[in-house]
Every structure is written in C-alpha cells, then in structure tokens.
Amino acid sequence: MAETSRELPLSTLTASTRRALRIRARQAREAKLSVLSKVCYAIGGAPNQVSGSASAFFLQIYLLDVALISPYQASLVLSLGKTWGGITDPIVGYCISKSKWTRIGRLMPWMLGCTPFLVVSYFLLWFVPTFETGRVLWYLAFFSCFQALSTAYHVPYTTLTMFLSTDQMERDSATAYRMTVEVLGTLIGAAVQGQIVASAHTGSHCNVTNMTGNLTADFLYEPTEYITSARQVYMIAAGIIGCLYLLCISVLFLGVKERDDPYALVAGKVIPFFKGFRETMQFGPYLNLISSFLLISAAVQIQQSNFVLFCTHAADLQDHFQNLVLTILIAAVLSIPFWQWFLQKFGKKMAAFGISLMIPFSIMLVTISSLVVAYVVAVASGLSIAASLLLPWHSCWTSWIPSGAVIQSQMRKLLCRLKKLPKSPTLPT
C-alpha cells in the first residue's frame, strides 16, 4: 500500500490515506533528534557522575580527617547511606510508573523537583556542624538524603531515553552521547575535587619530627588552622558541584523535549508490583547477573573510597594522591575504546574478567609502597574501572538482563496462548 501510494499522485488518494501519510511523515520528523538535543540530554547526566565520583574518592577521608568522626562511624555512614540509596531505587521507579502526564512531561517534574533538595543535601554533606555529640547522625542523615535524591534524579533521567524518540537508532545515538558525557563527568568530578582539596591532606600540616617530647604550643595551634582551612576548601568544592547541578538541569529542561509513550497500552491487565517483583526474582539468569554486578560494584567502590585514605595515611603519598586519582580516571577514559574492541573480539564474558585486573596490582601496592608502583597500580586500576563502567551500561548487564527478561516474558506469554489453543495435530503458523 505504501509503495502504491508513492507511485500515485497525492490528489488521487483518499482522504484517510492522505491523512495517514501526513501523520507518518510528521512522526518521522519528530523521531529525528538534533545533535543539540542529544548534547543537552547528555549534559543532564553529568552532575550525578561528578558528585558520585567526588564522594566515592573523598568522602571517607573527609569524614575521618576533617569531620573528625571515628572510623566505625564513618563506615556506618557510608554503608547505611549506600543501602538506603539501593532501597529507594525500586521505590522511585514504582512512583514514577504511577505518575501522570503533565505539560512538561512525566519524568521532567521529578528531576526538576528533586534538584534543589539534592543540591542542599550535597552541600550540607560537606559541612561540619559546630556540635560534636551526634555529628555522625548529621552525616548519616544528609548522606542518606543525597543517595535517595540522587536516585530520584537518576532513575527518571535514564528512563527519559525511551521518551526522546520512537526511533531506536536515535535513542541509541542519544545513549552514546550520554555515556561519553558521564565518563567525562566521572573524570571531572574526581579531578576538580582532588585539586581543590589537595591542600587539606598534605603532610606539611602535621610535620612533627619528635613525637616523644612535649608538644609545643605552635603544634597545638596548627591543627586548628589546618582543620578550618580544610573545611573551607571542601565547602568550596561542594558549592562548585552544586552549581553544576543547577546549570545542567537547566540545559536539560530547555534543550530536551519529553514525548509521551506511543507504545503505552490504553487498557490491559496490570501486574501488581509485588507479583512482578516475585516473578523477576524467580528468573535465574537475572539473579546471577545482578549478584555479580552487586559484588563487582562493591569491590570497585571499596577500592575508590580506600585508595585516597591508603595513599595519605599508609603509603606516605599524601602529596601525590590527587594526581594518582587523576591517573586512574584518565587511564579509565583512554582504555574504553580498547575494552570495546576486546568485547567485540572475545565476547562479553571474557571482557568481564578484565575487572579483576585490580586485584594483583592492589596487593602489589600494599607490599611495595613506592611512588612508581603507585602510578602503575593507578593505571591498572583505571583499566579495571573502565571495564566495570563500560560493561554494565553498554553491552553486558544492560543487554543481558533486559534481553533475558523480555525473552522469558515472551516465552511465558507464548506458553499461555498455546495452552488456550484447541488440541490439533498441527499448530497454526
């Protein structure tokens, strides 16, 4: 019908056919995304990566050296905050699925609404209150708020990909833009934070040659000045990243148009939340992949949070830690094309083993504490982190998991339909 309509003059077609052709042409034009729209969409994902990278590398040492809480309290803040962030993920997804369409879309109100609170919680996370008793509750509260609000921003942002265009190739192109900017955001976050707060962890503040004698009054006064200066530089870094949030959400709102879901069912049987969750958790491949992703992510985050702490207090590399962090992330960015080639050449499972590169090199840094070894370990860690960044978002978990879930769902629907068919020696084609 489409080929016949192209051959005939437009005047010879019926009114309904002409209307259908105009609608199809309009949909094709709307499905096309401009480069500006893709760039604006990608910029919207940068602040979460910037803040996530900064907190992953520097929050633990900040809590210990600047906020002056105990190691047990610091680990409690990090573990409970991360756990709360994971709990809020499905909750936010469920709430978004129940949201109604507004003039600016279904997802955009979530991002616009949570951004101001996200900025405030992130800034207060790097602020040291005047009281000492119960200070751990301050950081636990604001780190949990930051994790929850970050999830409330990130879930609708990633979901927005499906509402940018009806063309799969355009959505894939927008995802490529987003991945590029997110990787750069990870690099920028650690670089900016590291260069700003480097003065807060240099050895000159605590340079005491004889700890066995009586401490002088100058030494007793110097840590107070050091702590005050350290708190100021951390707040400056937090303010810069907070302004970045406001700038990026403005670019996202002004440059991206959210389209209503053209594939949404008008009517149908809705699966209850807990029933869908139970069916999902009964899918074996999904559980295996999610478990591996959880363990790998935990390993990478543990290394990130302890690397700066180890370099500063154990390896006597406090004057180089910011450059080591920068080396890790530059190596990660530059090695992404290599991992892409490796993945296409040897497959997804072989590429996943590249994440284990950090294990022997991390052991080497613990046993041989030298600057050269530290930079070698930083490069190897960057290669490993690149694999952990690329595989989940590009072609490993996010293709295995959805594909497996979709295939499983389709197979169940097909079996249900076959059971309803009348018994016959041959199945209909």
TrEMBL record:
Q: Which GO terms describe its molecular function?
A: symporter activity
List the keywords (alphabetical). Cell membrane, Lipid transport, Membrane, Transmembrane, Transmembrane helix, Transport
Which residue ranges does UniProt annotate as crossing the membrane?
A: 107-129, 136-155, 233-256, 283-304, 324-343, 350-368
This chain's protein is named Major facilitator superfamily domain-containing protein 2B isoform X1
Specify the superkingdom.
Eukaryota
Where does the record say this protein resides? Answer: Cell membrane
- Matches recorded under PANTHER family: MAJOR FACILITATOR SUPERFAMILY DOMAIN-CONTAINING PROTEIN (PTHR11328), SPHINGOSINE-1-PHOSPHATE TRANSPORTER MFSD2B (PTHR11328:SF30)
**UniProt keyword annotation of Cell membrane present:** yes
Q: Which family does it belong to?
A: Belongs to the major facilitator superfamily.
Set out the biological process GO terms recorded for this chain's protein.
carbohydrate transport; lysophospholipid transport
The way it spans or sits in the membrane comes to: Multi-pass membrane protein
| Keyword Transmembrane helix part of the UniProt annotation | yes
Where are the coiled-coil regions? none
GO CC term (a single one): plasma membrane
